[in-house]
Each structure stands twice: as C-alpha cells, then as structure tokens.
Amino acid sequence: MLTRLFLIAGTICALASPSALLAQEAPGGGDAPPTPVTVVTLRATDVTLTTSLPGRVLASAQAELRPQVNGIIVQRLFEEGSQVAEDDPLYRIDPRSYEAAVAQAEATLTQAQAQADAARRDAERIDALRDRRVASEQSQDTAIAARDAAEAAVRVAEAQLLSARIDLDRTTVRAPIAGVIGLAQSSQGALATASQADPLAVIRSIDPVHVDVTQSAADIVRWRRLGPEAALPPDMDRTVSLRLADGSIYEHTGSLTAAEPHVDELTGVVTLRMAFDNPDGFLLPGMYVQADIPQAHIRNAVLAPQEGVTRDRRGRPVALVVNDDNIVEERLLDIQQDHGNQWVVSEGLADGDRIIVEGVQRIGPGMTVAPEERAARQDAAGAGAADDTAEQPAENPAEDPAEDATGQPDPATDPAAD
Length: 418
Description:
alpha+beta
C-alpha cells in the first residue's frame, strides 16, 4: 500500500513539474518580460506654500445707537437696511423738556451777567473813593471779591447753558459712522433712557470688511522652523484669496493687516486679521469663509502626483521610483503640504526622478520594469482610438439601385417581370 502511494506522488510531481516550469518561462522559453508601468518625470521648481484657514467676516466698523438723554421717541428718520452717512439724523426724542432747560439756562445766564455788571460798577466806585481816601481798604476788598464772584457766576451760567444745549441736541440721535443700518429695535412712542442696554439700531461699515481667521500655534512654530530661507521674498505677491461657503473664490483679493500677539490659553490659536474690498456688499458680517494665505516659499521643491505616493506600515509617505537601470527603488518622503492634486516634497525626490503612478500593485522594490511616460501613453491611446474609428465599416451602405424605396425589385430592370 505504501509503495503505491509513493508511485502516485511521483507521477503527480512528474506531471506538475513541466507546467510549473512553463509558468516561470515566457512562451519563447526565456525569462518573463519586465512589468510595464506608467511613470512621471519630476521637475524641481520654486513653490509658494499656502495655508487655508477658517474664519468669519466682520464689519470694518460697527456702532450701536444708544440714546444719551431720556424721553419718548417721536420719530424714526431712516429706512431699515439703507446706507447712512455720518451725522445723519436717525431718531428724534421729544425735545420739549430740554428746550425748557435751555430757556432756563439762558435766563440764569442773563441774571448772572446783570449781577456781574453791577458788581463791576460797585468795584469801580469803591476804587474811586479809595483814591480820594473816602472808602476804607476793607470796603475795596469786599467790592473786588463781589465782582469776582459775580464773574464766576457768569461762567457757571454759561456752562449750564452749554450743557442744556448739548442735551437738547442729543434729542436727535445721529449716525456716528457711515455704513449700512440694520433693523430698528425701538419704534415711535417707545421710552428711551440714557445709556440703555439695548441699542436703538446698529450701523455696520462693510466696505471694506475684515476677516478674522485662527491658526494654531503649532502651525506657526512649524512655519518659523523652516528658517529665513523659506521666508517670502519682498517682491512676491502676498495677496490673500477668499473661498466662500459654496466653494467659489471671491473675486477680490485682500491682504493681511494684523496678527494678535497672543495665544489663546483654551484653544491654542492665534487670530489673524485681513482686509478685503467689498464694493458690492457681497460679503456680510458673520459669513463663514476660508482664507488662503501665502506663508512660505520653498526653493527647488518637487511636486509629486498624489497617486504615486503611498504609506508604509508605519504611516510614513513613500514612493516607488525607477532608476537609470529601470529597477524599482522605494523612497521615504518629507511632504510639506498638498498643492492641488500634487504633494510638495522637500526631501526624498529630486529633479529628473521617475515616479511610478500606475502599476504599483504588480511590482516591488528591486524589480525590473518597463517604464512609459504618462503623457506619451495618453497620446498613444488617443491615436489608437482614432485608428479604430477609421477602420469601422459604414453602418448605412448605399442602397441597391435595382430596388426602389419600398425594397421591391424595379420592374424596368428585373428580367423576371417580363
């Protein structure tokens, strides 16, 4: 029984060996041809690194209207949502009590001026009598003091009149800045109190607008560690583009105007402020946007197609490159950031390297491959498609002239019709 088993096993091995050998050899008896792969030849170039940061649109100036006097609102003088100019009248508060206060202050001033005139005349008479040694020195001192007190009373009355006139002018609430006024929060007949908590309305200046974005302190440290050689050149365009919530790009560019020199202890971020022109009022305060800010300039960086970069078991970015001998090499990459559909690689790839972008699944490091440039392959594929189209037969051949439109033989040419 054991002998028969050995004989069967030997027969199976004898039958399997030729097929295994054939599988390792090409149909002509030689080694298998190199695996075809698609490559892209890389070129080193200078790249400006940008950062996309989220933020909100803010008004460049904002003023809340609050009354500075007490009274009943008798008139609203603006249209909600309209453009207002600086010092335009917006609300009118009942002015009658303040007009009365102005009249009283004017009367008090007139009285004080009259008393001051009388005190000056008395002082002048005492001076004349003193020169003739008729009045005493004490009488002269008393007259001078009364004159000075009366003149001081005049100045007090003038200040009271000025204060009354200011309060009367404040019964007309005016626009402190130019901009777009929002909804009215108080209507005619409402009681207004000085420095109340709720504003009567809010004015916002939205041309230009500010955009405040936040960036983590860790990112700022990473950018600064790139060194001065990565700093933006003085002559480089530093404009900032804005991406709206629907993904579109805002037509106007802006600029970075300020950065808060403080890191928030709770979130660990720094606030950056930018200014954008907004002539059409398209941007409104509170809108969510993303700002693309140029932050560094990398010289001789390599842009690698993203489809040619993978991750190893440790999560590090790697790429397969074909050397001059058409042998596959694995490279460990140092990626700065993405740039469209490419990676900005600062280390691991060099100018002229051929990175594999198609056929990665069938190869490995050390294998010999047959590289083909992606652009050349696409051109060849387009030419082949054109040839296939030219070789296709006509779908609608010409009809037999011996047949009429109905498909029946023409009696004039068919001999069977005779």
